[in-house]
Amino acid sequence: MSKRVAYIGIGAMGFSMAGHLASNGYNVSVFDVDGSRVDAWTSEYEGHGRTSAADAAAGAEWVFSSVSTEHQVLASTTGEDGAFQSMAPNGIYVDHTTTSAVLARDRANAAGENNLVYLDAPVAGSPAEAARDGTLLIMAGGEKQAFDKVLPALNCYGKEIQHLGPAGAGQLGKMVSQIAIAGIVESLAEALHFAQLSGLDGKQIVDLMVQGPATSWWMTHRAEPMLEDRHDVGGPVRNMLKDYAMCLDEAERIGAHLPVVELVHRFCDEIAAQGDSERDFTGLIKYLKDTAASG
């Protein structure tokens, strides 16, 4: 296998994802706005470091991307040095960035105008675990035929991969995931906060709870670091703040009522205002402790 592909954005998630492609025989060119990441990636994996998205994507049939903001999505696709101008005709651009469904549809239209196909394919899973281990959950929207073509590549770093519908469907699926997480993590933070203040042994109560109906993936994998005030395992609060703002915008557009998401979004906003936006999402327990301590 020697298919030429590119990966744009090799930060916390993309670094490992691009690495899985290289390790599975793809001829990978990478670009990141932070050149030190490119140097680090090419020192660890076999591939090519490039100085722009257009350079990385030159002649590539498939381009994958994991950037941070919607502005970066625009720049990396149709910006002055964007990938759309240099990809191979009929190429497929797979965007793993979490964005609005509105932007995903806009990028799909822009790709079509450039004789390309755009798939919105956000992921769920942490950089330190799922991305590293190649066990990400991937939700895709866009042309099914294009999805089927790139599926072998997605299998390099995805464990559960589903095509959910037309352009924007992948982003809507990611919103469902984030909405479900909001209540789970907030209630877990509240439960552990309550347990600690009531004098219970936090580890003992968690070991008991995971055996019953209160258990969850979050309790199994995140309760221990939450009890130990370690909040550096998953994605940062700033990402959740962005994601929940998009969920609320989409909810308003379709007429959905999301009171729990509204609450958690407000908490995340207050955490960011306190300068703790780089803590991972389990930092909600610290927010509860700080709020309780301040009266």
Give the gist of this structure.
The protein is α/β, with parallel strands linked by helices and 295 residues long. It is 53% helix and 14% strand.
What report would you give on this structure?
This protein has helices at residues 14-23, 35-44, 53-57, 70-78, 101-113, 127-133, 144-154, 169-197, 202-209, 217-227, 237-254, 259-273, 284-293; strands spanning 4-8, 27-31, 48-49, 62-65, 92-95, 117-120, 123-124, 136-141, 158-165. The N and C termini lie far apart (62 Å). It has a 6-stranded parallel β-sheet. A 3-stranded mixed β-sheet has the order 7-8-9. The chain is of the alpha/beta class. The protein is 53% helix and 14% strand. β8, α7 and β9 form a beta-alpha-beta unit. The chain has 2 domains: 4-166, Rossmann fold; 172-293, N-(1-d-carboxylethyl)-l-norvaline Dehydrogenase, domain 2.
Oligomerization status of the protein chains: single chain
Shape annotation: globular
The whole-angstrom Rg is: 20 Å
What name is given to the CATH topology of the largest domain?
Rossmann fold
Total DSSP helices: 13
The figure for the number of domains is: 2
Please give the alpha-carbon distance between the first and last residues.
62 Å
Biggest sheet strand order reads 3-2-1-4-5-6
Overall mean pLDDT: 95
Instruction: Output the structural class.
Output: alpha/beta
Please outline the major beta sheet: 6 strands, parallel
CATH level-two architecture of the largest domain: 3-Layer(aba) Sandwich
CATH homologous superfamily classification of the largest domain? NAD(P)-binding Rossmann-like Domain
Helix content: 40-55%
H/E series, N to C?
EHEHEHEHEHEEHEHEHHHHHH
